[in-house]
Design a protein that fits this description.
about 375 residues; alpha/beta; TIM Barrel; ten-stranded mixed β-sheet; two-stranded antiparallel ribbon; about 30% helix; disordered C terminus; binds iron/sulfur cluster
Length: about 375
Protein backbone atom coordinates (compact mmCIF):
# COMPACT_ATOMS: atom_id res chain seq x y z
CA UNK A 1 0.00 0.00 0.00
CA UNK A 2 1.56 3.28 -1.08
CA UNK A 3 1.62 6.49 0.85
CA UNK A 4 1.72 10.18 0.02
CA UNK A 5 5.14 11.36 -1.03
CA UNK A 6 7.23 12.58 1.85
CA UNK A 7 7.57 16.33 2.10
CA UNK A 8 10.13 18.38 4.12
CA UNK A 9 8.37 17.84 7.45
CA UNK A 10 9.22 14.13 7.26
CA UNK A 11 12.88 14.57 6.36
CA UNK A 12 15.56 13.44 8.81
CA UNK A 13 18.48 15.77 9.66
CA UNK A 14 20.69 13.48 7.55
CA UNK A 15 18.49 14.02 4.50
CA UNK A 16 18.67 17.77 5.02
CA UNK A 17 22.45 17.64 5.32
CA UNK A 18 22.63 15.65 2.08
CA UNK A 19 20.40 18.19 0.36
CA UNK A 20 22.74 21.02 1.29
CA UNK A 21 25.90 18.98 0.59
CA UNK A 22 24.63 18.37 -2.95
CA UNK A 23 24.61 22.16 -3.35
CA UNK A 24 28.13 22.60 -1.96
CA UNK A 25 26.85 23.84 1.41
CA UNK A 26 28.09 22.81 4.86
CA UNK A 27 26.16 20.13 6.75
CA UNK A 28 25.12 22.46 9.56
CA UNK A 29 22.77 24.24 7.14
CA UNK A 30 20.68 21.08 7.19
CA UNK A 31 20.59 21.16 10.97
CA UNK A 32 19.48 24.78 10.86
CA UNK A 33 16.51 24.01 8.61
CA UNK A 34 15.59 20.99 10.75
CA UNK A 35 15.61 23.19 13.87
CA UNK A 36 13.43 25.85 12.20
CA UNK A 37 10.89 23.21 11.26
CA UNK A 38 10.80 21.13 14.40
CA UNK A 39 12.08 23.23 17.27
CA UNK A 40 10.49 26.53 16.29
CA UNK A 41 7.60 25.42 14.08
CA UNK A 42 8.62 27.69 11.19
CA UNK A 43 7.59 26.12 7.88
CA UNK A 44 8.13 29.06 5.50
CA UNK A 45 11.75 28.92 4.26
CA UNK A 46 11.75 32.68 3.67
CA UNK A 47 11.43 33.10 7.46
CA UNK A 48 14.54 30.98 8.18
CA UNK A 49 16.60 34.05 8.85
CA UNK A 50 19.98 32.48 9.61
CA UNK A 51 20.17 31.31 5.98
CA UNK A 52 21.24 33.65 3.19
CA UNK A 53 18.60 34.91 0.78
CA UNK A 54 19.91 32.68 -2.03
CA UNK A 55 19.54 29.54 0.06
CA UNK A 56 16.09 30.52 1.28
CA UNK A 57 14.99 31.09 -2.30
CA UNK A 58 16.45 27.75 -3.38
CA UNK A 59 14.58 25.98 -0.59
CA UNK A 60 11.36 27.78 -1.45
CA UNK A 61 11.55 27.08 -5.16
CA UNK A 62 12.94 23.53 -5.18
CA UNK A 63 10.92 21.86 -2.43
CA UNK A 64 7.24 21.25 -1.82
CA UNK A 65 6.24 23.36 1.21
CA UNK A 66 2.49 22.86 0.98
CA UNK A 67 1.49 21.55 4.44
CA UNK A 68 0.76 17.79 4.44
CA UNK A 69 -2.31 18.32 6.63
CA UNK A 70 -4.75 21.13 7.33
CA UNK A 71 -7.17 21.39 10.23
CA UNK A 72 -10.62 20.28 9.03
CA UNK A 73 -12.45 19.87 12.35
CA UNK A 74 -11.84 20.32 16.07
CA UNK A 75 -14.15 18.74 18.64
CA UNK A 76 -13.80 19.21 22.38
CA UNK A 77 -14.83 16.64 24.93
CA UNK A 78 -16.28 17.46 28.34
CA UNK A 79 -13.19 15.83 29.89
CA UNK A 80 -10.82 18.20 28.04
CA UNK A 81 -9.79 15.82 25.25
CA UNK A 82 -9.76 17.34 21.80
CA UNK A 83 -10.29 15.34 18.62
CA UNK A 84 -8.81 16.78 15.44
CA UNK A 85 -9.82 15.94 11.91
CA UNK A 86 -6.94 16.79 9.57
CA UNK A 87 -7.51 17.08 5.85
CA UNK A 88 -4.86 15.41 3.68
CA UNK A 89 -3.79 16.91 0.38
CA UNK A 90 -5.62 14.16 -1.51
CA UNK A 91 -8.94 14.87 0.19
CA UNK A 92 -9.11 12.39 3.08
CA UNK A 93 -9.44 13.06 6.79
CA UNK A 94 -7.02 11.73 9.42
CA UNK A 95 -7.94 11.86 13.09
CA UNK A 96 -5.73 12.55 16.11
CA UNK A 97 -6.59 13.18 19.75
CA UNK A 98 -5.04 15.45 22.37
CA UNK A 99 -5.63 14.03 25.85
CA UNK A 100 -4.91 16.03 29.00
CA UNK A 101 -3.86 14.40 32.24
CA UNK A 102 -6.05 14.86 35.29
CA UNK A 103 -5.43 16.08 38.84
CA UNK A 104 -1.76 16.71 39.49
CA UNK A 105 -1.02 15.65 35.92
CA UNK A 106 -3.26 18.27 34.35
CA UNK A 107 -0.31 19.91 32.63
CA UNK A 108 0.65 16.63 31.02
CA UNK A 109 -0.65 16.03 27.53
CA UNK A 110 -0.72 12.91 25.42
CA UNK A 111 -1.18 12.99 21.67
CA UNK A 112 -2.64 9.94 19.96
CA UNK A 113 -1.62 9.91 16.29
CA UNK A 114 -2.81 7.89 13.32
CA UNK A 115 -0.40 5.93 11.13
CA UNK A 116 -2.69 4.92 8.27
CA UNK A 117 -5.83 6.21 6.59
CA UNK A 118 -8.26 3.55 7.75
CA UNK A 119 -7.05 0.08 8.64
CA UNK A 120 -6.93 -3.34 7.00
CA UNK A 121 -7.17 -5.44 10.14
CA UNK A 122 -10.92 -5.33 10.71
CA UNK A 123 -11.16 -5.56 14.52
CA UNK A 124 -14.81 -6.14 15.37
CA UNK A 125 -15.03 -3.45 18.08
CA UNK A 126 -13.23 -0.70 16.16
CA UNK A 127 -14.77 2.17 14.20
CA UNK A 128 -11.70 2.60 12.01
CA UNK A 129 -12.11 -0.97 10.75
CA UNK A 130 -15.26 0.04 8.88
CA UNK A 131 -13.19 2.30 6.62
CA UNK A 132 -10.96 -0.48 5.34
CA UNK A 133 -7.44 0.61 4.43
CA UNK A 134 -7.30 3.65 2.18
CA UNK A 135 -3.54 4.15 2.27
CA UNK A 136 -0.51 4.49 4.52
CA UNK A 137 0.37 7.89 5.92
CA UNK A 138 3.77 9.36 5.10
CA UNK A 139 6.27 10.26 7.82
CA UNK A 140 5.47 13.93 7.11
CA UNK A 141 1.75 13.29 7.62
CA UNK A 142 2.42 11.60 10.95
CA UNK A 143 4.78 14.35 12.14
CA UNK A 144 2.33 16.99 10.90
CA UNK A 145 -0.36 15.70 13.29
CA UNK A 146 1.94 16.59 16.20
CA UNK A 147 2.84 19.94 14.65
CA UNK A 148 -0.76 20.97 14.02
CA UNK A 149 -1.64 20.07 17.60
CA UNK A 150 1.31 22.07 18.95
CA UNK A 151 0.11 25.03 16.88
CA UNK A 152 -3.35 24.65 18.36
CA UNK A 153 -1.88 24.58 21.88
CA UNK A 154 0.24 27.64 21.12
CA UNK A 155 -2.85 29.55 20.05
CA UNK A 156 -4.51 28.89 23.42
CA UNK A 157 -1.77 29.25 26.04
CA UNK A 158 -4.33 29.80 28.80
CA UNK A 159 -6.26 26.63 28.04
CA UNK A 160 -3.17 24.48 27.80
CA UNK A 161 -0.92 26.28 30.29
CA UNK A 162 1.91 26.39 27.81
CA UNK A 163 2.98 29.96 28.57
CA UNK A 164 6.60 30.27 29.63
CA UNK A 165 7.48 26.69 28.76
CA UNK A 166 9.51 25.65 25.72
CA UNK A 167 7.35 24.28 22.91
CA UNK A 168 9.13 20.94 23.10
CA UNK A 169 7.80 20.42 26.62
CA UNK A 170 4.12 20.96 25.91
CA UNK A 171 3.55 17.29 25.23
CA UNK A 172 4.36 14.45 27.60
CA UNK A 173 3.56 11.37 25.54
CA UNK A 174 2.98 10.47 21.91
CA UNK A 175 1.12 7.23 21.26
CA UNK A 176 0.63 5.59 17.87
CA UNK A 177 -2.84 4.31 18.73
CA UNK A 178 -5.04 6.23 16.32
CA UNK A 179 -6.24 5.03 12.95
CA UNK A 180 -4.27 2.17 11.44
CA UNK A 181 -1.85 -0.58 12.36
CA UNK A 182 1.52 1.17 12.83
CA UNK A 183 3.55 -1.98 12.22
CA UNK A 184 2.03 -2.32 8.73
CA UNK A 185 3.52 1.08 7.90
CA UNK A 186 6.76 0.62 9.79
CA UNK A 187 9.23 2.60 7.61
CA UNK A 188 7.14 5.78 7.80
CA UNK A 189 6.38 5.20 11.50
CA UNK A 190 10.06 4.75 12.38
CA UNK A 191 11.02 7.75 10.25
CA UNK A 192 8.45 9.88 12.07
CA UNK A 193 9.66 8.66 15.49
CA UNK A 194 13.24 9.56 14.52
CA UNK A 195 12.16 13.07 13.48
CA UNK A 196 10.10 13.66 16.63
CA UNK A 197 12.89 12.39 18.91
CA UNK A 198 15.81 14.11 17.23
CA UNK A 199 17.66 16.39 19.68
CA UNK A 200 18.00 19.06 16.98
CA UNK A 201 14.21 19.38 16.75
CA UNK A 202 11.44 18.63 19.21
CA UNK A 203 13.84 16.40 21.14
CA UNK A 204 10.93 14.30 22.30
CA UNK A 205 12.13 11.49 24.56
CA UNK A 206 11.77 8.23 22.62
CA UNK A 207 10.86 6.52 25.90
CA UNK A 208 7.67 8.56 25.90
CA UNK A 209 6.71 7.43 22.40
CA UNK A 210 4.61 4.27 22.24
CA UNK A 211 3.86 2.20 19.18
CA UNK A 212 0.80 0.03 19.57
CA UNK A 213 0.10 -3.08 17.50
CA UNK A 214 -2.85 -5.40 17.11
CA UNK A 215 -0.35 -8.27 16.86
CA UNK A 216 1.03 -7.91 13.34
CA UNK A 217 3.87 -10.38 13.90
CA UNK A 218 6.01 -9.60 10.82
CA UNK A 219 6.00 -5.97 11.92
CA UNK A 220 6.92 -6.97 15.47
CA UNK A 221 9.86 -8.93 14.14
CA UNK A 222 10.93 -6.03 11.94
CA UNK A 223 10.63 -3.63 14.88
CA UNK A 224 12.67 -6.00 17.05
CA UNK A 225 15.41 -5.82 14.42
CA UNK A 226 15.24 -2.03 14.02
CA UNK A 227 18.56 -0.78 15.39
CA UNK A 228 17.49 2.68 16.49
CA UNK A 229 14.05 2.16 18.00
CA UNK A 230 14.09 3.28 21.63
CA UNK A 231 10.35 3.76 22.10
CA UNK A 232 7.79 1.69 23.96
CA UNK A 233 5.71 -1.17 22.62
CA UNK A 234 2.05 -1.80 23.38
CA UNK A 235 0.08 -4.81 22.15
CA UNK A 236 -3.71 -4.97 21.91
CA UNK A 237 -4.46 -8.44 23.23
CA UNK A 238 -8.10 -8.42 24.37
CA UNK A 239 -8.36 -12.23 24.56
CA UNK A 240 -6.08 -15.21 25.11
CA UNK A 241 -8.20 -17.91 23.46
CA UNK A 242 -7.76 -18.17 19.71
CA UNK A 243 -11.44 -18.55 18.84
CA UNK A 244 -12.47 -15.45 20.76
CA UNK A 245 -9.46 -13.38 19.75
CA UNK A 246 -10.01 -14.24 16.09
CA UNK A 247 -13.60 -13.12 16.44
CA UNK A 248 -12.53 -9.83 18.00
CA UNK A 249 -9.35 -9.36 15.97
CA UNK A 250 -9.20 -11.27 12.67
CA UNK A 251 -5.42 -10.76 12.50
CA UNK A 252 -5.34 -13.59 15.05
CA UNK A 253 -6.30 -16.10 12.34
CA UNK A 254 -2.99 -15.44 10.66
CA UNK A 255 -0.93 -14.90 13.80
CA UNK A 256 -2.58 -16.80 16.64
CA UNK A 257 -2.02 -16.21 20.34
CA UNK A 258 0.91 -18.64 20.71
CA UNK A 259 2.69 -17.10 17.71
CA UNK A 260 2.17 -13.60 19.11
CA UNK A 261 3.50 -14.72 22.50
CA UNK A 262 6.59 -16.18 20.81
CA UNK A 263 7.25 -12.87 19.05
CA UNK A 264 6.88 -10.99 22.34
CA UNK A 265 9.21 -13.39 24.16
CA UNK A 266 11.81 -12.70 21.47
CA UNK A 267 11.31 -8.94 21.51
CA UNK A 268 14.44 -7.20 22.85
CA UNK A 269 13.72 -4.99 25.85
CA UNK A 270 16.11 -2.60 27.53
CA UNK A 271 16.58 -2.90 31.30
CA UNK A 272 13.50 -1.87 33.29
CA UNK A 273 11.36 -1.68 30.15
CA UNK A 274 8.10 -3.57 29.87
CA UNK A 275 5.67 -4.24 27.07
CA UNK A 276 2.15 -2.94 27.70
CA UNK A 277 -0.67 -5.37 27.03
CA UNK A 278 -3.92 -3.59 26.24
CA UNK A 279 -7.06 -5.45 27.23
CA UNK A 280 -10.54 -4.00 26.64
CA UNK A 281 -13.02 -5.55 29.05
CA UNK A 282 -16.22 -6.60 27.27
CA UNK A 283 -19.15 -7.69 29.39
CA UNK A 284 -19.56 -11.47 29.40
CA UNK A 285 -17.06 -11.99 26.61
CA UNK A 286 -13.51 -11.80 27.91
CA UNK A 287 -13.95 -10.79 31.57
CA UNK A 288 -14.47 -14.08 33.44
CA UNK A 289 -12.16 -15.38 36.22
CA UNK A 290 -11.02 -18.19 33.87
CA UNK A 291 -10.09 -15.60 31.26
CA UNK A 292 -8.15 -13.61 33.86
CA UNK A 293 -6.19 -16.80 34.63
CA UNK A 294 -5.59 -17.33 30.90
CA UNK A 295 -4.16 -13.81 30.75
CA UNK A 296 -1.86 -14.63 33.66
CA UNK A 297 -0.60 -17.69 31.76
CA UNK A 298 -0.04 -15.54 28.65
CA UNK A 299 2.11 -13.18 30.71
CA UNK A 300 4.34 -15.90 32.18
CA UNK A 301 7.96 -15.21 31.24
CA UNK A 302 7.11 -11.85 29.63
CA UNK A 303 8.09 -8.44 31.04
CA UNK A 304 4.69 -6.81 30.76
CA UNK A 305 2.13 -4.62 32.44
CA UNK A 306 -1.57 -4.84 31.72
CA UNK A 307 -3.69 -1.84 30.77
CA UNK A 308 -7.37 -2.53 31.30
CA UNK A 309 -9.46 -0.28 29.09
CA UNK A 310 -13.18 0.39 29.43
CA UNK A 311 -15.13 -0.35 26.27
CA UNK A 312 -16.93 2.57 24.66
CA UNK A 313 -19.68 1.83 22.18
CA UNK A 314 -19.63 3.73 18.90
CA UNK A 315 -22.49 4.12 16.48
CA UNK A 316 -25.91 2.66 17.03
CA UNK A 317 -26.60 -0.94 17.97
CA UNK A 318 -23.09 -1.80 19.10
CA UNK A 319 -22.76 -5.53 19.63
CA UNK A 320 -20.56 -5.06 22.70
CA UNK A 321 -20.99 -3.58 26.13
CA UNK A 322 -18.53 -2.69 28.88
CA UNK A 323 -17.85 -4.96 31.84
CA UNK A 324 -19.86 -3.96 34.91
CA UNK A 325 -17.76 -2.71 37.87
CA UNK A 326 -18.07 -5.91 39.94
CA UNK A 327 -16.82 -8.18 37.14
CA UNK A 328 -14.04 -5.76 36.38
CA UNK A 329 -12.99 -5.62 40.04
CA UNK A 330 -12.90 -9.42 40.27
CA UNK A 331 -10.81 -9.59 37.08
CA UNK A 332 -8.36 -7.02 38.42
CA UNK A 333 -8.07 -8.81 41.77
CA UNK A 334 -7.13 -12.10 40.09
CA UNK A 335 -4.43 -10.43 37.99
CA UNK A 336 -3.04 -8.52 40.95
CA UNK A 337 -3.14 -11.65 43.08
CA UNK A 338 -0.73 -13.20 40.58
CA UNK A 339 1.61 -10.23 40.97
CA UNK A 340 0.84 -8.57 37.64
CA UNK A 341 1.03 -4.81 37.31
CA UNK A 342 -2.45 -3.68 36.31
CA UNK A 343 -3.37 -0.16 35.25
CA UNK A 344 -7.05 0.65 35.01
CA UNK A 345 -7.24 3.27 32.33
CA UNK A 346 -9.97 5.84 32.12
CA UNK A 347 -10.82 6.23 28.45
CA UNK A 348 -10.77 9.88 27.43
CA UNK A 349 -12.96 11.62 24.92
CA UNK A 350 -15.72 9.04 24.63
CA UNK A 351 -18.40 11.73 24.22
CA UNK A 352 -16.77 12.91 20.98
CA UNK A 353 -15.88 9.44 19.63
CA UNK A 354 -12.23 10.03 20.42
CA UNK A 355 -11.72 7.10 22.77
CA UNK A 356 -9.85 3.94 21.94
CA UNK A 357 -11.33 2.23 18.88
CA UNK A 358 -13.64 5.12 18.02
CA UNK A 359 -11.70 6.97 15.36
CA UNK A 360 -13.20 6.78 11.90
CA UNK A 361 -13.90 9.19 9.10
CA UNK A 362 -16.20 8.90 6.16
CA UNK A 363 -17.64 5.53 7.09
CA UNK A 364 -20.13 3.86 9.35
CA UNK A 365 -18.71 1.92 12.28
CA UNK A 366 -19.20 -1.83 12.20
CA UNK A 367 -21.10 -3.80 14.77
CA UNK A 368 -20.29 -7.44 14.31
CA UNK A 369 -20.82 -10.39 16.52
S1 LIG B 1 -8.22 -1.59 16.59
FE1 LIG B 1 -6.41 -0.81 15.53
S2 LIG B 1 -5.69 -2.58 14.31
FE2 LIG B 1 -7.81 -3.03 14.90
S3 LIG B 1 -9.04 -2.27 13.14
FE3 LIG B 1 -8.91 -0.61 14.68
S4 LIG B 1 -7.19 0.65 13.98
FE4 LIG B 1 -7.00 -1.36 12.96
Amino acid sequence: MGCAEDTPLGWSPGRWRDWFAARGQPAFRGDQVFAWLHRFGVTDPMEMTNLGRGLREALASELDWEPPLSVAAVQRSADGSVKFGFGTRDGHVVESVLIPGSGRDRRKYTVCVSSQLGCALGCAFCATAGMGLVRDLSAAEIVAQVHRILEHMGEEPGTYQTAGRPRAQWLTNIVYMGMGEPLMNLPAVLASVAVLADPGGLDFSARRITISTAGWVPGLEALAAAPDFAGQLAVSLHACEDALRTRLMPVNRRYPVARLREALLAFPLAARRRITLEYILFDGLNDSPAQARALIRFCEGLRVKVNLIPYHAHGEGSAFSPSPPARKAAFVAILQGAGLTVIERASAGSDIDAACGQLATGSKPRATR
